[in-house]
Each structure stands twice: as C-alpha cells, then as structure tokens.
Write a structure and sequence with these properties.
The structure is a homodimer of 299-residue chains.
Chain A (H helix, E strand, L loop, with lengths): L2 H22 L7 H12 L6 H13 L4 H22 L9 E2 L2 E2 L1 H4 L2 H22 L6 H15 L4 H11 L6 H26 L4 H28 L2 H4 L5 H4 L5 H26 L6 H12 L3
Helix pairs in contact in A: 1-4, 1-14, 2-6, 3-4, 3-9, 4-6, 4-9, 7-9, 8-9, 9-10, 10-13, 10-14, 13-14
Chain lengths: 299, 299
C-alpha cells in the first residue's frame, strides 16, 4: 500500500479488528463455542480489511472524523466478505486449503461447521446493521442501507457473480460478460463500501450516483490489474501460481484485449477514477492514494 | 390439519406461493438463470408454509384483515426456512436426497449451486424486508423486525441450534440442553413467526412477551410430539423411519422422561398454549386450532 492509504490502515486496523471481535463474542457454555471459534478463526484472520477501510475513507468524505458511526457498516462489509470466502473455499466450490495464511475454515474445523459459520456471518451482517445503525442515522436511511448491502451481497450482486464465475463465461465471450461478472462478483461489495456512507449521510442523488460509478471503476481497475499480473508476474512476486487464468480458459481482460490493450484499459480506469475524485468537494487524498495503489500493485 | 387452520391455508396458500414466486423472479439472460432455477426449485417446492401461515394468523390478532402488509415478513420466514433446508441437506450435513417430495437442491443441480442458492435466500430475506416493509410500517419497527428475525435465524437462534444438534448433546444430557437445542433449531423461527407481527403492529411490551412465550410453547409442543411419534408410530403412518432417534443415541423427551412422561409434557404444553391464547383480547380460534393440530398429529 502507498503511504496515505497505509496511514488510514495504521490508524484504523486495530479498531476494526477489535470491533469485529466484540461483534462476534458470546459467552456460550455449550457446542456453540465451536461455531463461535470457527467464525472467529475466519473473521479475525489477518486480512487487509480493504472494504472497511474504503468505507471509512468514504465516510470521511461526507462526515469527516465521524468514523465510529460507520463502524457497523464497515463490520458488516467484512462479515459478508468473510462468509463468501468461507463458502468459496469449500470442497464443492474452490476446494482451497489455505486462506489469509491460515487453514481454511473447513480444514481448521469441518465442512458442516464451515457452512454454518458462513451462514451465521451472512445473517449477522444484517442483524448488526439493524441493531447498531439507528443510534447514528435516521431509520429510513438505515433500511435503505440494509437493502443496498443485501442487493450487493445477494443474487443481484456477489452471489450472482459467483455463479457467473463458475458457469457463465469462457475466454471466447465478450467484454459485456466480463464486466458483468466482475461488477457482480467483487465489484458489488467494493461499490457498496463507497456508496453506503453516501446514503447514510444523505449525500444527495448525484453524489450517490457518483460514488456508485467510482466504486465500479475501482472494482474493475482491481480486476484488470489482476488479469495483467496473472500473465506478466512470477510466482515469487505474485504469491500464487501465474498463468492460471489461461490454463483454465478463463475470460479475462488479457484474453479479450491482449496484454497491451489490458494495460491501456487499466490506465484509462485509473485516470477516470482520479477525475471522479477530483470532482468531489471534499478531501479525497486517501481514496486517490488507494487508486494509485491498485494501479501500481505487483501482487 | 384441523379445519380452521386448514381454512387459513386454503385461503392463503396460493397467495403465499405467488408472492414468493414474484419475489425471486428476475429476467437474467446469463448463467444466473441457473441460480434462479435452483432457488425456485427449493422455495416453490410443495411445502405446508407453516411459518408464513402462523405469521398471517398472528397478524390477524393485531390488525385483522390486513394480511397483505405482513406478506414481506411471511415470505422472509419461508426464505430463511428454505435456505436452512437446502444447506441442511448438503452431503457435509444430513446428506439427504429428497425434500418436499422432490430431489434436494444439490441433487437437482449441484453442490456449489445449492450452497449459493441457500446463501442468496438467506440474504434475500433481509433485502426483501428492508425493501418492502417500510410501505406498511414505521421505519424503526421495520429495523426492529429485521434485527429480531436475524437473531432468530443466526448464531443465537437457528444456526446455533444446528450446531447443537450436530455436536451438542447426547441421550445422557439434561432437559435444559434439550430445550435449548429445540428453542434454537426450530423454535426460534416459529417464535419469530408469531412475534414479528406483534412488533410491527406496536402490540406493546407485554403482548410481545406473551407472543414470545406462546411461540416457544408451540415450538416445544411440536418437538415433544415428534419425539413421541418416533417411538410409537410405524413407518407407513410416519412417512419416515421410526426409532431413528434411539438408534442415533439422540437426546429426546422420551429418552429423558420416558414415553408416559413425554405424553404428560405434551399435554401440559398444549394446555399452557391454549391458556395463553385465551388471555389475548382477540379472536385466537385459528391459532387454537393449530395447537390442537400439533397435539393430535400422527405424522
């Protein structure tokens, strides 16, 4: 990460983790301690907390300094993201053994516990927002936020994107299919991270729409760079096996546009994202820094 | 079902199914049609819709005739119930091939699709309530309802009960463990079916508490009868293999109290439920009829 966004992370990471920890801590004396342990294992594993940090950065655009108010949303975003990782890693899905440097949930516990831990986190995200947000924001806006996050997480968003990823596309497909896939699978939750503070702070219809477009833009920028790194980086730098997309005949920006075309696409998304930020009447340095980080990352 | 509750079912079943159908219908032209088909397969399979009907019966206590207003809650309850069936049936959980007379979701589709269909329904329940309820009820009460349903569905309720069922008890355990298990696993959602209309119609703290206690009572009554039928019925009547609980060394009312003790427990829960209903200042005939149905059922 570059310096200003890293500073945001340094300032807030411990608070986010402490908040998440508090949100999942019960005092069971029966078998539910296992479920809680599985949830804790996955939710508190070392993650970058990109979505909560984006949410805090967006909150600072609309209500500078009022970070605590948006923490229920930041936490809900991480809960949804984590549940999707737990279920994605299951044998019937990606069948992964490691995640965030630790054994995946079904490896550390078992499949049934992992399925239930994911289910519990999905539900907890909405329970937590419904319980904690009304102290800070008008009730109608809290409901709008729950609706927005649920659409982003569910069939119209992330879950729909996972189906598209499994069954929906091949390297012969077109740019529309590619962008639909990514705007759903990873983009919807990244977009929600930026948009939810704008809804809750009554930013106005034009600002909310701008946040949506900016969120989509950085979601796609993340993905183009991912596709470029897959063909141009090595395993030591990348931390995972390169050329995986080509081997799996996946639809990527590189398969569609070629490496040079993909690089041009990344540059234009980067420029567009910065232009959008420049038109906000607020201090957007942190988000601009995040855009640069996405653009320049090597892994 | 006995006659008055069956009448409620006859009147509302088609409307519930049509409402559920509308709530899950999109117009995708890509692989998401498969996800929608899997959701439709499970959600619209022939079910008794007990939770939506209980919710409608409860709504009629507080706002007689205003059934349409509560349909988003009735639908959300069935979505949560169905997602839990889909995930429960997975190979890593109960590994069932048939449900509601049809192949289970992972048999009709595949495991990955079934996991995602369950996830989508879990999320959709809250999205639907957040989107549809505010037209009919005050926003703060809508938030309270989402919070209440999410607690009933999540770790403190249904999902916690599933963990207790898998890992938490043996036939040597005590009545406290048994009742905690059932009040979580099936009771929490049945209780929510009764309680949510009381919250949304501002029934008052005493009425809401009475609904909670009544909901718990019928949830346990359902379970005692289930345990009694397991040892006293035959396969033809029961529609499933009897004596399964004993073979699996499960903690049941019969294993704890003996058959006669369990029958006395059922009688006392039945009487208590009817006494509670008699103290409502409303027409409780439908719910009283449902209590009799639970008590007298043979399968």
């Amino acid at each position: 990460m570059t310096s200003i966004f890293k500073h945001l992370s340094d300032v807030h990471l411990d608070a986010i983790n402490a908040y998440l920890n508090a949100a999942i801590t019960h005092h069971y004396t029966d078998a539910r301690v296992t479920l809680e342990a599985a949830i804790r294992h996955s939710l508190l594993a070392p993650g970058k907390r990109v979505r909560p940090l984006l949410c805090i950065a967006s909150q600072n655009l609309f209500s500078p300094g009022e970070v605590l108010k948006i923490m229920p949303v930041a936490a809900a975003l991480e809960m949804i993201h984590t549940y999707s990782l737990i279920h994605d890693d299951l044998p019937a899905m990606d069948n992964d053994d490691f995640r965030r440097g630790l054994p995946t949930c079904h490896k550390a516990f078992d499949e049934a516990t992992a399925i239930l831990a994911g289910d519990a986190l999905n539900t907890l995200a909405f329970q937590h927002m419904a319980q904690e947000l009304p102290a800070h924001f008008p009730a109608d806006l809290c409901l709008q936020s729950i609706n927005y996050l649920a659409k982003a997480a569910g069939e119209p968003g992330m879950v729909g994107g996972q189906i598209l990823d499994i069954y929906g596309s091949s390297s012969q497909d077109n740019i529309h299919a590619l962008e639909t896939l990514h705007l759903c699978k990873t983009g919807a939750l990244i977009r929600a991270s930026i948009v939810l503070p704008s809804i809750l702070n009554k930013a106005g219809i034009r600002s909310i729409a701008k946040c949506e477009y900016f969120g989509d833009t950085i979601g796609l920028l993340f993905q183009v760079i991912d596709d470029i790194l897959d063909v141009s980086s090595d395993k030591a730098t990348l931390g995972k096996t390169p050329n995986k997309d080509i081997e799996q005949n996946k639809l990527t920006y590189v398969s569609l546009l070629g490496l040079e075309g993909a690089k041009q696409k990344a540059q234009s998304l980067h420029d567009e994202a910065l232009d959008l930020l420049a038109s906000f009447e607020a201090d957007t340095d942190v988000l601009a820094d995040f855009v640069s980080y996405l653009f320049k990352r090597k892994a």
